[in-house]
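Researcher: I'd like a structural prediction for the single chain below. Treat it as a standalone chain; there are no partners to consider.
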Amino acid sequence: MPVCYNHTMKTKDVYSSSSYPVTVRDMKITAHIAFHEALGQKPERSDKTYAEIAAEGIRRYWSEAGFEVELIPCKIKDKTPHVNVLPAKVTGTSYVMSRWWRWGWGPLRCALHPESFMLNWSLKNPGNIHLNLRTYRSESSFMRIAAHEFGHILGLGDAYAAHYRYFYEAPGTKTYMMNRNERVSEEEVAMVLKAHRTGKMQYFPMKFSLKRYVNGLRKHR
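Model: Treating it as a single chain, here is the predicted structure.
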């Protein structure tokens, strides 16, 4: 069941600082974002660049959920706090990752949550997006991937059965953006608002089962 929060709750204003790359207030997302030059190229069978497709996907899917989305273009070397969108190099997938100096101690802040090891999320340090250009299939799929990864920047964990979730899929999330990249749900909207109200990343439920974990490892060899 979707979780609802009082959007007019009187809380500490965490949005007034100019040091945040991304702010969420009154259903408006403002993100300072810089695309690597590699994303200025155009994939085959498209008249748009990777950057244009990614930005369109972020705006489309998060706008459909009721947010007003403003993406403010920056350059990689700008001193203004911003999110970098880079070509993925570490794995064969797209992902969001904190800068190296934030690795490792995230679980100490998040009750040993495994998702926080490489993404030690905070309002000032939401991470950088790494998009795998080699697995590009179509504009629509790339837009959904970009929207999913932007969900991490907004403070959401994954809902699908990833190895760092012990191969456990959060119940009732099959159509969620943070599961199968389909749409941003009411629950995800509420979680984003809570992340930016509290300054804490929001995670979907997760359970450990040795049998499920072993079976998952066998399937993903």
